[in-house]
Amino acid sequence: MEAQNVGSGVQTGAPVEAQSKAKELETVTARPVEAPSALEKVQDLAKAVEVLNEALSKDPVSLRFTVDETLNRPVITVVSEKTGEVIHQLPQEDVLRAVKNIDRMRGILFEDQI
């Protein structure tokens, strides 16, 4: 059974290497993190747009922007121009259905409490 220092929570039998790694991590996490400048944000956005445009040029797709009438929330649909097939939708149809059901249940549960 190894000796343990209860006050500090550090085992005295722990290897020195592990203790030095812990101190190293403390110094890394203690450094303040600088927020990226506006220019860096714009450059990052430009790179992301470039990557997206390159990916979209390989398989022609179109984006459809709609507003769900029940929830009054935006819905973005990615559709293949070749087949007309919906490739992806944000939020997904299951999520929209769940939110509508929760909204409906909230109305049923709380309609008498005003």
For the structure shown, list the relevant keywords:
114 residues; alpha+beta; two-stranded antiparallel ribbon; 5 strands
In short:
It contains three helices and five strands, in the order E-E-H-H-E-E-E-H.
Describe the structure.
The chain is an alpha+beta fold. 47% of the residues lie in helices and 22% in strands. The protein has three helices and five strands. The protein has helices spanning 16-30, 38-58, 93-110; strands at residues 4-5, 10-11, 61-68, 73-80, 86-90. Strands 3-4-5 form a three-stranded antiparallel beta sheet, with no helix packed on it. A two-stranded antiparallel ribbon has the order 1-2. Strand 4 and strand 5 (86-90) form a beta hairpin. The longest helix is centred in the middle third of the chain and has 21 residues, at 38-58. The radius of gyration is 27 Å and the shape is flat. The N and C termini lie far apart (64 Å).
Strand content: 15-25%
Widest sheet: strand ordering: 3-4-5
Uncertain spans, ≥5 residues at pLDDT below 50? 1-12
Helix content: 40-55%
Annotation field: number of helices: 3
Number of strands: 5
| Pattern of helices and strands | EEHHEEEH
Instruction: Supply the helix-strand structural class.
Output: alpha+beta
The overall pLDDT, averaged over residues, is 75
How is the biggest beta sheet arranged? 3 strands, antiparallel
